[in-house]
């Protein structure tokens, strides 16, 4: 009983405060977990990929360091690549696809740089 209360507390306390009332009344951690899965998981990771791609397009340097901006983009792109691996099997096609993806990512990176860097 105590372990269940601890785990349920971890789950509930990790939620955004606006969501807690939807799940607090479940009696066990498993019931909370199952309700979360039913509510937010559609059987695929499509919504996570959408969110990651949206975060990439909205990410800007915003006066921060170039290194932080680059590392933040790389982290998002790694997560996208993990969730959406290249489905091709032909090595030539894989290489061509990867080259195109990297080229697009350069454009996204450049677009997010601060305007003060335009003259460099």
Please give the structural blueprint.
Layout: H1 2-13, H2 20-23, H3 29-40, H4 46-58, H5 66-83, H6 91-112
Helix pairs in contact: 1-3, 4-5
> Uncertain runs with pLDDT below 50, 5 residues or more?
none
Number of DSSP-assigned strands: 0
Major sheet, described briefly? Answer: none
Shape: flat
Structural class: mainly alpha
Query: Which quaternary structure do these chains form?
Result: single chain
Mean pLDDT: 92
Helix content estimate: 55-70%
- How many distinct folded domains? 2
Order of helices and strands: HHHHHH
User: What proportion strand?
Assistant: under 5%
Q: Count of helical segments?
A: 6
What Rg, in angstroms, do the CA atoms define?
20 Å
Distance between the termini: 63 Å
What key phrases describe this protein's structure?
2 domains; mainly alpha; Retrotransposon gag domain-containing protein; 120 residues; flat; 6 helices; 68% helix
Give structural notes.
- It comes from Glycine soja (Wild soybean).
- This is Retrotransposon gag domain-containing protein.
- The protein has 120 residues and is mainly alpha-helical.
- It folds into two domains: 39 residues, no CATH class; 72 residues.
- It is built from six helices and no strands.
- Helix 4 runs antiparallel to helix 5.
- The termini are far apart.
- 2% of the residues are buried.
- The mean pLDDT is 92.
């Amino acid at each position: 009983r105590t372990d269940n209360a601890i785990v349920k507390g971890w789950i509930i306390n990790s939620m955004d405060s606006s969501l807690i009332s939807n799940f607090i009344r479940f009696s066990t951690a498993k019931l909370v977990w199952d309700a979360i899965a039913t509510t937010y998981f559609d059987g695929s990771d499509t919504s996570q990929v959408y969110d990651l791609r949206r975060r990439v397009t909205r990410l800007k340097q915003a006066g921060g360091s170039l290194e932080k901006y680059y590392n933040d983009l790389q982290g998002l792109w790694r997560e996208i690549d993990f969730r959406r691996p290249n489905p091709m099997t032909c090595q030539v096609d894989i290489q061509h696809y990867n080259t195109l993806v990297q080229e697009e990512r350069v454009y996204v990176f450049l677009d997010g740089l601060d305007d003060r860097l335009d003259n460099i």
